[in-house]
Amino acid sequence: MQRELLEKQLREQKIELVRAIYMGPDGITRGKAFRPGELDAILESGIGLTQAQMSVTVFDHLPSLSKYQPVGEVRIRPDVDTFQVLPYLPGHARMLADVETLQGDPWELCPRSLLKDFLSRLAARGLQIQTAFENEFTLSDQTETGWEPVDQLNCFSSAAMDLASPFILPLIDALEQQGIKVEKYYPEAGPGQQEIPIRHQAGLLAADQQVVFKETVRGVALAHGYRVSFMPKISPAFAGNGCHIHFSLWDENRNLFYDPAGEFNLSGTARHFMGGILKHLPALMALTAPTTNSYRRFVERCWSSSYTCWGPDNREASVRAASGYQGQEAATVNLEYRPCDPTCNPYLALSALICAGLDGIENELDPGDPVLTDPALLSAEERRALNMNAYPTDLETALSALEQNPVLLSGLGENRITDYLTMKRAEISMIDSLGDEGERQAYEFRF
Fold first, then answer.
1. Which of 24, 171, 265, 397 could form a disulfide with 220 if both were Cys (CB 3.0 to 4.6 A apart)?
2. Can you tell me the distance from the alpha carbon of 138 to that of 194, in angstroms, rounded to the nearest whole number?
3. Which of 424, 99, 119 lies closest to 285, judged by CA?
């Protein structure tokens, strides 16, 4: 965005505070706000931030084993092209930001800069990735006993749409004012659970859009007297909140995952990319299902997937080969990665998927046979024959898989992964000390 246009918007919209926000490895959106008169200085020099801030847990606790202690400085550098007036909060605007060194170079722990690196690797091959993050979240309003889901009705219930409408319509308006195209809306299976699929974007725009989506959902809810939770599993009795990642690889004008002659219209490139994801799945889940609560969601026959496999339109598979729309198959065939939830950092999650997928393409990894039923309906012997393993049962198991995965360690950077492991293990220790109800209090409204 040109500086003159930005300054014009600041004046006309009577903006009083501009947020420069970033998402740390912990998945929490953080930032600092400044007055419009400081715009030129902020764009030139950024905003100061201690290095240690990128290593804190969701409890704002800095692990003693972290390499990055409260000595050393980095800069929050707003990206002027991401400027948006907040339609749900008069007087406020937002810019997404990178975290840079004092010299203006990408800092080694910045997730947004990492994704830029992986997109550059794709671009060097003449490729780009189209992606959409598909979120589920729980909408609650305040009752005499506290915050409770807005409904106890059925999946896709029209009556549930009625109850959520005072929130949903302002939300759709706020999203579209910020350039996010809403494709559908429906109540999901859990009490108060909502889903709003949005239009895919290329590369960095998709991950940025995920940050803006969550910020807007939360902000509109607060503005209208509601609260939302992106917690993966609020209650054992409720359906969990997932964040499925839809993606496809493209060259300049062609979907490289589509082959009209391929099984299920999938190309060899799509199959190899899936092969990489399935090979690295336990390690990937440390980044795509990054909380202790995430692993409560992976229950058999709960539409969340719980076994390593792929299948055409199989919503109990790790990777669903999503069928294209009739007459538009070449543009709409895509893959859906399912063991992911909204507590993930989208820059890390998408970087990790690209890293695993490129390994699959480079080594022509075979994803194996498609699974054409719910894996839970197969016997243990049948699953073994298909090389179908159960997911990690907890976050520590996934972290150990990441720690032992040379492809992801090398691709994402050992310093980054070492610090991430330290941070997440400190988070596990804190959660373990709090118990189940403490886990809910920690995660329910934090993300």
1. 171
2. 6
3. 424
Does residue 112 contact residue 226 with C-beta atoms inside 8 Å?
Answer: no
Q: What is the reported pLDDT for 1?
A: 61
Please list the ranges in the chain whose pLDDT falls under 70: 1
Nearest CA to 217 out of 190, 243, 235 is that of 243
- Alpha-carbon 78 to chain mean position: 20
CA distance 407 to 232: 27
Instruction: Give yes or no for a contact between 78 and 91, defined as CB atoms under 8 angstroms apart.
Output: no
Q: Which amino acid is at 110?
A: C
Residue 257 zone, left/alpha/beta (φ > 0; ψ -120 to 50; rest): alpha
> Which runs of E-coded beta strand occur in 237-342?
243-250, 307-312, 317-322, 334-337
Q: What pairs with residue 319 in β-bridges? A: 310, 337
Question: What region does 313 belong to: left with phi over 0, alpha with psi -120 to 50, or beta?
Answer: left
Cα separation, 33 vs 18, in Å, equals 5
CA dist 130 and 150 (Å) reads 34
* Angle, vertex CA 287, rays to CA 283 and CA 292, nearest 5: 95
pLDDT for 238: 87
Let me know if 52 is exposed, middle or buried by CB neighbors in 10 A (0-12, 13-18, 19+). Answer: middle
pTM tops 0.85, yes or no = yes
Q: Find the farthest-apart pair of alpha carbons in the chain and give their distance in angstroms, rounded.
A: 67
Q: Structural domains in the chain?
A: 3-108 (3.10.20.70), 117-443 (3.30.590.10)
Q: Residue 209 half-sphere exposure, CB side, CA atoms within 13 Å?
A: 26
Q: What was the pLDDT predicted at 140?
A: 96
